[in-house]
Amino acid sequence: MDTGIIKKENIKGVIESLMQMGKVVAPTRQDDMTVFSALPSSEALDLNYTNSKLSPKDYFFPQTEVLFCYEKENNQIHPPLIEDKPACLVGVRPCDAKAITLLDCIFNDPQYKDVYYLNKRKNTVVIGLACTNPQSTCFCTSTGGGPLDTTGMDMLWQDLGDRYLIKAVTPQGKELASKLFGIDKAPEKDLSYAKKQGEKVLSMIPPAFEAEKISEKLRSSFEDSVWETIHEKCLGCAACTFVCPTCHCFDIQDENSRDRGRRVKLWDSCMFPLFTLHTSGHNPRLSGKERMRQRIMHKFNYFKVNNGHVACVGCGRCIRECPVNMDIRQIVSAFS
Amino acid sequence: MWSKEITQKIRATAESLLLEGKVDLIIGYEAGSTPLRTAPSFVRSAEQASLLVWNPFCENNLSVYLEGRKEKVGLMAKGCDARAAVVALQEKRIDRDRLLIIGLPCSGVVDRQKLAASVNIDAVKAFSVDKDSLVLQTEEEVRLPLEDVLHASCKTCSRRNAPVSDIFIGEKSSEPQVKDEFAEVKSFEGLGTQERWRYFRELAQKCIRCYACRNACPLCYCQECIVDQTQPQWFGKTAAEEDTLIYHIIRAYHCAGRCIDCGACSRACPMGIDLRLLNKKLQKDVQELYHYIPGLNPDEAPAFGTFKLDDPQDCITEK
Ligand code: SF4
Ligand code: SF4
Ligand code: SF4
Ligand code: SF4
Fold this sequence. Notes:
The structure holds 2 protein chains of 2 kinds. Chain A is of the alpha/beta class. Chain A contains 12 helices and 11 strands. Chain A has a 7-stranded mixed β-sheet with strand order 1-9-8-7-6-2-3, sandwiched between helices. In chain A, strands 5-4-11-10 form a 4-stranded antiparallel β-sheet, with no helix packed on it. In chain A, helix 7 (about 210-220) crosses helix 10 (about 290-305). The longest helix of chain A is centred in the last third of the chain and has 20 residues, at about 290-305. The mean pLDDT of chain A is about 95. Chain B has 2 domains: about 5-115 and about 160-170, no CATH class; about 185-315, no CATH class. The model of chain B has no long low-confidence stretch (mean pLDDT about 95). The interface between A and B is large, with 39 and 38 residues.
């Protein structure tokens, strides 16, 4: 089945049938925010959200991940349990789904494979949720995406009021659609309504800049005077990079006790001075200027050169969560 | 008070201070990139002075930018910015003759998270302040009493005007009569161990260790924060509860007797964690034990920078 309709009154049944197949990770409401978590029951699902506080990247690339444990006695190494059960990510916004394909560039590099990431990735079906109500900070249309973009999804759901239109994107998505409970055939009028709705939402997010042009410009802007002042208000925290669905830098730490220990992989951030501090004491990115330049250059220049796409999907989280209102749209626009 | 006239006066003052060479830099606020935000602003020329704004979204504590500055700075200061500057002066982080405190009449800043709970802030195109109301322009006009959306720190603040200033712009705000600034702490103290522990655990579970709280805090100026040290590494860097909690507890203790309760840490937190309670508890203890309120007088020695013979000794236990 390529398209179909799920009536909202049937959504619980659909989620329950997904839960029978494996773990379902989906938006849930916690206090005042929406976050992705493994659903304890179908009731916990909350699809009426604009975007989640944190992106679902944490599912594939957890903030803290144990790589292995060791015991000194007999030099024993214990690998962690590798999750190989099927799982489903539900309700992922188009920007965040696309971000997963950018993480793939890093963790599924031809030379370096992150088995922890890839194991989950290959066992997980991604069901996206089209945007109907973009936020003032959304700018996906400036970075090659859009409210109905299906990049990184196996299936897309679109909220049509009392029903969801579903579209299978990949063969896995098609297969899943054929197994789900309660999917009806999509009538022509729903398809045309969905199209109109999509166009309307798209028109609500006029592009703020042209990412292509900016990447080009950044290639020769390493010494540009813009960097001298643009970082000045930045506090050097990691709010922007930790909430970002594409930021993927990590640190590896060994935690030792007397006779045992473990090796963990942890999120790290280019905005921290420690990130580039050498053992010698030298720090090649000495101030906020170099660090901010790195963050922007990596996203809009180096990543583009290396992987063919800018490493920003325009979700706007960094803008919302920055304590000093650093707006990445304004920074890159300075190079347009 | 929040008014357009104050903004005009701020701009004029900044302009003349820069033109007369009395300061090299004014640190203030400018309009943010979305309607309900402002951003810290660094004004170095008279022409840029027109960027400066003054409104209830001026939420950052600007004293965070004083650390390590060589220039002569004019600091736009709410009560709490000035008090943080006083702590910086007491702790010899900045020279008095390189700091010009421009006091401003604060009426409390808005808690964006609280506001977002009652209005769709994405639909807001513009705002204004009409006496005690915040007026939001959405499809229709929304009027909210400012009092209802003030940040928790501002609700218990009775030092809205800078205690020390070189210039004061506008008329001083009337200081509200706060019934009991420690009411929340007291009810927390009254909880059982389990319940108090739950508060700590919930805090730690939510925290993503982004350190926005630490970096937004004007008192957290250590060259190398203990959580960042690797030689030796004092504790784990994971987002696990035990590692996260130890960070928060250490930070709170490092700010004891220094925290001026501006709430900048809580406002900076992307996860909406109420960090204030812990700080407020220590503030209460310091006040009760040492009769000390931080950030009022640059010539006074800070609570933990001095020793009086009649200081309570109960903390020293003999075994
Ligand atoms: S841009 Fe904002 S969120 Fe990012 S490090 Fe700077 S202050 Fe923190
Ligand atoms: S850089 Fe900002 S807008 Fe771009 S993907 Fe990351 S968080 Fe979203
Ligand atoms: S704590 Fe006091 S001085 Fe600071 S912003 Fe709130 S009301 Fe103003
Ligand atoms: S700002 Fe919030 S999430 Fe970040 S470290 Fe502080 S408490 Fe944790």
